[in-house]
Amino acid sequence: MKTLLTGGAGFIGQHVLRELLARGHEVRVLDSLRPDVHAVRGWTPPAGVEFVTGDVRDAGMIDRALSGVEAVLHLAAKVGLGVDVGDLPDYASSNDAGTAELLAGMARAGVSRLTLASSMVVYGEGVGHCPEHGPVMPAPRAEHELAAGRFEPPCPSCGHPLATALVSESAPLDPRNAYASSKVAQEFYCGNWARVTGGAVAAMRYHNVYGPGMPRNTPYAGVAAIFTSALRRGEAPRVFEDGGQRRDFVHVRDVAAATVAACEKHRAGVRAFNVGSGTPRTVGEMARALSDALNGPRPVVTGQYRLGDVRHITADSSRLRQELDWRPRIDFANGMAELASL
Prior knowledge:
alpha/beta, globular
């Protein structure tokens, strides 16, 4: 199958590219190589891969990149939290206007299959379980509570502590920062496109992705990259809050395999898929695992916090397993050991 991979020079994109090639697909990559996303400006694609340098917001470029294409995998995006109101225009332009241009181009070109890189951030704090009120959506955490070291989001009805719960794709969307809002908008635009054109969309809601090629020392780097960078400098990883934040850390090669499986197998309608390992871990556990693997100093729990961060978000990835026959292959211990050896 001839595919267009946007963002193919990025961290996850390069792994998706390798997976596409390993499965025998023909790939054209479109990437702007924008410096706030790519630490290294130049990029050389593997042999046999056509590379187009350009921006998804450029309609003429999109038309050229879509020529002869049967399916699109859309990973190009500005990533990170977007904690400043001044970040809003760039997220809206890069992610949402860019996706809209791509979808319009796909309609012109008659390309009907799209796999979208979305994110678990669309869920906000996800779902918690209150002993009195059952499943509830935690309210946004107030700054005065965080400053006092009270990090757990309470039940919005009674204020009691909530038990954590896995989040399914049917959970309400609750974006709490600029990046999250842009990913929700991308999904809605793709749904609009699919209804008008009859196209198929698989929205891959990636959880905390780590592995070879992670960007380091950048404001949008994942927590694993931040910790490994500190340890390689001989510094202790600095863990925000109390280290008890729960996440689903999933290896980038597993994410790539899931993304390509969706491109190959999802052929009708709009469907979201959580992409996670299925085994929640705390941020503190990851920091300790990396410290052990690198024989570095023990993590320091700082009590610091960032407004917009969520406390717990972990995935129920059973839909992906059942419908696309995908399974994660790299467990946490092996993934951390590999990360430490890079």
